[in-house]
């Protein structure tokens, strides 16, 4: 049976730690070619807006507030795409505003259960998953451990090893300091709100940062997502943008979610509701 069509006003793309809206540049043309309007966001504290970020201590609530503001640019529910650590604020956004989200898409993302931080998952997995810490051993710490930076050589080895070489070098050079208060995040989620939003999880099979065993542990802890695989490293939107776009758009189409008219994006929010689905959230162990 063909699923009922759910029109989405577009996609909101959320970057991960140490990154910015530029992280999606290679993917935007692929989405546009498939009829999707996409809006990127620079999360507070990433340095893109020095006036806004001066003296700011970021938090999960500050991230959710910024994403709520970004949603206001759309007049109907949207598909929220979260890369890597952006999965945590994306999940909390779905808890706060489930009616504004047509689907959550995690791209090698942190799809964690309520009350569990990613460091807790890594610590619990370290004995059985070699190199579970991913980028953590390579980080350089600043301001008495309150922020970190990723050395370019480590970014090329862990994040960008299979991306086009020149694009990888440019991306590594753009990484900015990341406040630890914006990385060590823990959600508060419920089955009634977060759990009613459809989810897609795109696992990156050659990921050296969020390793595949950890991606699959999160899928088990937060069941209900449609899982798709892409044979690349941590940044599919740069390593294989066309393949990722086809994978995501085809999967959305398979559950009836399609882009609405290109004129659907406006300056004011609306209260249209997403289609109900029955999903459950996991609990931390």
UniProtKB/TrEMBL annotation:
Lineage: superkingdom: Bacteria
GO terms for MF: hydrolase activity
Membrane recorded as keyword: no
Residue stretches making up the AB hydrolase-1 domain: 12-246
Pfam families: Abhydrolase_6
This protein's UniProt keywords: Hydrolase
Leader sequence residues: none
Family annotation (InterPro entries): AB_hydrolase_1, AB_hydrolase_fold, MES/HNL
Protein name (record): Alpha/beta fold hydrolase
Organism expressing this protein natively: Paraburkholderia agricolaris
Origin organism lineage: Bacteria, Pseudomonadati, Pseudomonadota, Betaproteobacteria, Burkholderiales
